Structure formats: C-alpha cells, structure tokens
Amino acid sequence: MANEEIIKEEDYGVLLYYKYATIPDVEALFNFYDSNCNSLSLLGRVRLSPSGVNVTVGGKLSALEEHIAAVKLNSLFEGTDFKLASCHEPSNDRVSMECGFTSLSIRIVKELVTLSSCPLPRSPEISNAGKHLSAAEFHSVLHNVGNCQDKLVPSSDKGTVLIDARNLYETRIGKFYTPNVETLDPEIRQYSDLPSWIDNNSEKLRGNNILMYCTGGIRCEMASAYIRSKGDGFENVFQLYGGIQRYLEQFPDGGFFRGKNFVFDHRVSVGSSDSRILGTCLLCSSPFDDYSSRTRCTYCRMLVLVCDNCREKDSSYVCELCQENSQCIQPTSATEFDDSVEISEVWEPEAVSTSDRIALSPLVSVEYTAGPRTLRKLRILCLHGFRQNASGFKGRTASLAKKLKSIADLVFVDAPHELAFIYHIRQNGDSASAMENNRPPSESCSKKFSWLVAPDHKGESDSDWKIADSPFDPLQYQKQTEGFDKSIAYLKDLYSKAGPFDGILGFSQGAAMAALVCLHQQKLKGEMEFRFAILCSGFAVNMSNCQQGSINVPSLHIFGSDKGKDRQIENQTSRHLASLFENGCSVVIEHDFGHIIPTRPPFIDQIKDFLKRFM
C-alpha cells in the first residue's frame, strides 16, 4: 500500500511555460487548449492573448508530457521552455482552490501579465526585453562581479545591481544574496506596482549592468523591456531565463539563492537542499516560511506569515506595508475577493477627445445563483485638472476605473481651452550644462487643456514652447476665473451627443468646473443633468455669493486631510467647497495621500457605497 502511494505521488506533476509570440487566431488556440487539457484531465490556468500564452497546469506526468508534445507541433511554440516538475497530487483543500488547481480555467486576456494598472506613457515592446542568461550564465555573472574578463556582461563604471521583480510576500521567504552586488527589493504588493518603483529609482539603475529575476521568467520579460525603453544608461539589462525554478534545478544546493521559491500552485513554495528558513512570523519574528494557511492582511489582503503558535481563528493581521503606512482603517471585506459572482464586461473606460465624443451606454451581465440578470452600469463624465488632458487623466485614474468596473464606466473628455506649452528657467548658473538643462523638452508633447483660464489668457494653441512669465505659483488656480461660458457651452454640446450621464466627476480644476455645473443645475435643466457629483481635491471659483448648503446635488468630496500633503489644494479650500453642498446628501472622504484619488480600502469601499445609491 505504501509503495502504491509513493508511485501515485511521483506520477503527478506541474507544468509551467509561457511564450510571447503573435497569435494569429486566439479563438483557435483557445479551442486547442480546451480540447487538449480536458482530454488529458489537466487542471490549472491557461491565459491566452494576441501576444502569447501563459500556462500553469497540473496532472499526471504522462498526460503533461503528452500535452507538451501536442503543443510543440505548433510552430508558434518553437524555443519554448517547458518547466515540468514532479510533485504530490493536490487535495481539494483551500490552497488548491485558491491556486486554481481544482478546475481548469482557460481565458482570453489583453495582457499575459499586467505590467501597470495605469496606461504607460510608452508601452514597452517585448522584442526589447533584456538579454536572457541561462542559470549557469546568471550564476557566473554573480560570481564574477567586478571581474573585467567576464564576457557575459559589458564592463560598467558604476557596477552591477540585482532586481527582484517579485512581490514582497514572495521575497520574504527567499531571494538571491550575492557578495559585492547591490540587491534591490522593490517591496511591492503586486507586479503592476513595479513600473512606478522603476521610475522612482531610475538613478539607482542608470549606467549599471542590471540583472533581474523572478519565479519563472515571464515577469522579467516586460519589466526588462520597460527599463530598456528608458533609453541611454538603461541598455544593459539581463534576466534569468527560466527564473528561480531553472536556477534551483541547476544548483540544487541553492547557489546564491537563499530560502524558498514561492510558486503560484498547490506546492506553495519550492526549496533547495539548504533547509535554512529565511522568513519570519509577522507577530513573534520566529523563523517561519509557510504560506499554506493563506493568512492575509486585513486591509490590503496580501499574504502574510503567521506561525502556527500565533495564528488564531478570526483574528486580524496587518502586513508590514500597511504598518509602515500607519493603517488605522476598516478592514477590507472578504466579499471583495469572492469569485462566486462573475461579471462579464462588454465595455471599457474610454477617453473622449474633442473630435470623437460619442459613446454607447454599456451593459453588465451579472451571474447570480437565481439566474443571469442584466444591469446598466452608471456612466460618469470625468473632467481633468488644469494643464491636463483626457488621455493623461484616464491613465492616472486607471486603478479607480478598474475597481469600479462592475458598477460604473468613466468617460474622459478634453477641456475646450487649449494651453500653450511653457517651461521654467532654472537658476543654476551659466555653464553649458546649465543652458542645456534649461532647454524645453525635445520630444513632441500631448496638448494640454483647461476648463477655466486667467483673464489675460490669449488662447495660444501653437506647438512652440514658451518661457513662463513668472515662477510657478501654487496658488495660480485662484486667478483662473474666466472661460466658464465657453466650457459650459462645450459640455452641453458634448452631453447632447454623448449623453446622458448619471454623474460628473472632477479633479482639481475639473472639480471646480463640476461644482459650477451643479450650482447652475436649474438653468441647465433639460440640457445637461447629473444625478450626483464626485469632487476630488476641489475648490470654489466664482461662487462667492453661494450660501452654505445651498447646492442640492448629491455629492461625494474627496480631498487630503490637514496632514494629507496635498501641496496643490489646501484642506480648508476643499472643505469650503464641500460646505456649499447640502449637508444631508453629501459625503466627505479625507485621506493622507496628497493630490490624488485614493483607491485603497477603505476609501474605494466608501466610493462604491456612494455610487450604489444610484444603481
């Protein structure tokens, strides 16, 4: 009996592979995976996109080998690294269910991995990804850092840095430790946070040989391409081909890798022959590296390490990132992560330009246990801030749009007043380098617009850069009091062509304009009507005669607290605008994150609660 159990356990395996390639017929490939995986009784996840595939499936080793053979018959998969490992068969427990190993999920997606939750200014091309280094080559480079004779990477005056492209909870149980190499751990909650970290730490990377690694390699593909897209000083990027998994196969003792490799299947983690534990319990700091309990942060839902002695049923835990941010908020509801309700979207957030403003009202099909039911999502017209545009505002609010996608669609529009391109002279000497720094950007820039302008606005719309007349004034918004008539006429025309809209959302000057629309609601009746307004970092313009509580429009006001670090719009300014709306139908959300619209819990939950009143 024991021998039979051993044979059964060894007969099971997990297969991981990905391939970036242009897929000419995604539907045909979907049908192949559906037929092949089901016939072989494979379970797990298959993600297909026009740019490639990403697969993690489990099953009998013989079935997985048959699957590999069938996939290899397609020339699209030439050169694919199929990572096959034997392991125990998953049981029908919480770990297997959470990792998707109790069923087969095949989906067609836009991106194999989401590099950023916001549209990037310059999308990286996968063809520009970093150079692949085999496990042996990667090990050799780390071993020979500082050796000018190493031919695998070019010599660098600054040196070599090593980036861990994984999430914080993964790095806490295992990572590379190499003498003489600076290892950079971005400490991110999710992969889509990595571009922001790269942007904020670009000077640490510039001019260095940059080595990257992740679990199996796919996350390094787009991340390395993003780094290289930054241009001069970011050319020398190298990635561990096959990821940590291939490295540990090549170096069973762990090599330069310490701890365990976190994996996204029922195995949870895979280690080397080195049994040392790198992770520690969140509460007592004792050595611990087992995520099998799937314990999560009460606030952000990130996995946390809590040892068996400290873990208690129904207890709340706060991850280190939330602790650093001094979270004292209501916990995220578990239903936020409940997959029992499946939403099928048929429409996406859009940016409406001045030349194309027509949009169709989207529908959402929600599957309930009692049967399908179709609901119309809310449509919200979004007004950007001063010297912004629809496309840029859409990018900055991508996280908000994503988290509201089941109940609302955001429609973005450019303001009617086009602004001239200006730049400020830096007072940093008369040297040649100083003169170079004072030149305007050489690349072409997107047009910028505003809803309200200063009285001396000349309406320039040419593409030439101009030197600013005066130093930047953080209170300039107080001087932008003209242009309302043109903007309101523009919005009425837009509403007639692209409306109706359920609500209006404005950010900064856009909030000031939205507030004026609410103020004039009686005059606008029949031409432009909104059931609610969301005003973010707002302020009042041309509303000196408006009485407190006199604007009778349901409103949500979102702005920074006294210590919210909003250096553009002071707390009292936004608070004053909120006071002009009827108190009984207004909601105020204050946060500590500056001049932004926060999308973390509990703020996103409060925003959703407000919107659900109008569903």
From TrEMBL:
GO terms for molecular function: zinc ion binding. Keywords: Metal-binding, Zinc, Zinc-finger. It holds the Pfam family FSH1. Residues 156-256 form the Rhodanese domain. PANTHER family: THIOSULFATE SULFURTRANSFERASE/RHODANESE-LIKE DOMAIN-CONTAINING PROTEIN 2 (PTHR43268), THIOSULFATE SULFURTRANSFERASE_RHODANESE-LIKE DOMAIN-CONTAINING PROTEIN 2 (PTHR43268:SF6). This is Rhodanese-like domain-containing protein 6. It comes from Capsicum baccatum (Peruvian pepper).
